[in-house]
Design a protein that fits this description.
mainly alpha, globular
Length: about 270
């Protein structure tokens, strides 16, 4: 493995993870959430991830496994890896309480309050801190997916990193809003939101070097099939429902189709 490929893959994963800071900045400088932009961009991100997962990543995993294990066993293991990835990210998502789950969409003007109408500062801080921890947990498989995709094919890694980055913007909002309103400190909220994204590249590198000890064509195929499953789950469970929670159903679908078209064209350009 060339060191330049590793550095490029790490840089892409770092970019994707730290885009939580973009969401944090939007929360501070926008008076209201741009629901049309978020709905369209999250739909776009879902389109990119679904298309590339099913058309490129799943197929590469299957080809690798079929070559080593044969047609029947290779196909079965590929499908098992795909649904194993879905099960992994699903379990992680299930273990995070919905109140602190960063995938429960929040907007700039969406501030939790008590019955008296005033923000409950202790609850706000708790929601923000737990959201940051939840992002760190979620970002491990997401970072590994970005990192491995970029190592396998740098040109494949770029659109995936962009899609993950778009997906991370609402997570930055979810962390920074409650912490800012609880502490009154923009810097504190921004730094916690920004640093929570570090779990993505750090987790990706740790995961990669753990897997490296056991790496073979079979392990590569299983992991790559799992990456496809992880990204499909993220798209169907988080991005599309989240985009529609912003109240722009048609825009999210237009974004989904646009993401698929852009991903399809970009793959055809490098055939």
């Amino acid at each position: 493995m060339e060191s330049s490929n590793l550095m490029f893959a790490f840089a892409l994963t770092l970019f994707a993870g730290l885009s939580t800071g973009i969401g944090s900045a939007l929360a501070f400088f926008a008076k209201r959430t741009n629901t049309k932009f978020l709905s369209l961009s999250m739909g776009f991100s879902a389109g990119v991830m679904i298309y590339v997962s099913m058309v490129e990543i799943f197929v590469k995993a299957k080809d690798s496994l079929v070559e080593v294990l044969g047609v029947v066993d290779g196909n079965w293991v590929t499908v098992g890896g795909f649904f194993g990835g879905i099960a992994l990210i699903g379990i992680i998502d299930k273990l995070v309480p919905s109140a602190e789950n960063p995938h429960e969409m929040r907007m700039v003007e969406d501030i939790p309050s008590t019955n008296g109408g005033q923000p409950d500062m202790s609850r706000l801080m708790r929601v923000g801190v737990f959201s940051a921890l939840a992002i760190a947990i979620h970002n491990f498989p997401e970072g590994l997916a970005t990192f491995l995709s970029a190592i396998e094919d740098p040109m494949l890694g770029v659109p995936i990193a962009v899609a993950i980055a778009i997906h991370n913007i609402p997570e930055g909002i979810a962390v920074s809003i409650p912490i800012y309103y609880a502490s009154g400190k923009r810097k504190k909220a921004f730094l916690l939101s920004f640093s929570s994204g570090l779990a993505e590249p750090v987790g990706a590198v740790i995961g990669y070097f753990i897997l490296l000890q056991f790496f073979s064509e079979v392990i590569f195929g299983i992991v790559f099939a799992s990456v496809a499953g992880i990204m499909v789950f993220i798209s169907l469970d988080e991005l599309l429902p989240g985009a529609q929670q912003y109240g722009e159903h048609h825009l999210s679908i237009y974004g989904l189709i646009a993401g698929m078209v852009v991903m399809a064209v970009s793959l055809l350009l490098f055939v």
